[in-house]
Structure prediction request, 237 residues.
Amino acid sequence: MTDETLPGADQVAAYLRRHPEFFQDRPDLLELMRLPDPRGPAVSLLERQASILRDRNQELRERLNGLIDVARENDLLFEHTRRLTLALLEARSTDKLLRQLLRGLEDEFRCDTVSLLLHDREAKLLGEVRKQVRFMDPDDLPSALGPLLRTGKAVCGILRQAELEALFQDQAEKVKSAAVVPLEHNGRLGVLAIGSADAMHFRSSLGTLFITHIGQVLSRRLVEVSGPAAARHAQRA
Prediction:
């Protein structure tokens, strides 16, 4: 058999794919085959297969551990969300509702700063709560917030400086990542912004399921505790 009649490498590979049992009755060939290994001396085919299987097993373990970590994080987020939701449901006035919100976000979610932009100018707020709430007509929202609020959905990530300043004002410099939640229930009610000094706390890959749920509960409770005034503002918006 001349070099011209010998099968090419692609033909050999195709044949072995069609006949994976080829080496089953030819163990002597397996012992003769040596494969270069970037991690050391050449090894047999069986040793290389065992090494590949070990690597794949390690990769699968790492993926499984990653899924377990995500599941644990979601369990923790669910518990925090559950406690905050119950606290919001118990409030009987706008002032108490927002106090529960601010306390829960700081204690349960380790947030460094919270800002609320509400459209209901008739809401009665006291003390520290009043410092973290701004009343603003929907048409007067800073233009920098337009891209964030255009979809009407919660957004997490690192915001632009103009967006941070519009949301957090004098606290903007210490916010490295944030979650922004439009508040809507039969119309626009305002915006909830939650900031963290940790750039990875509200990373863009973070799911918004839990923070969206908080925004939905808060929106409905705002309408309930504020009465007709909040409803009128929502309808106009």
The chain has a mean pLDDT of 83. Residues 91-236 form a domain with the Beta-Lactamase fold (CATH 3.30.450.40). The longest helix spans residues 45-90.
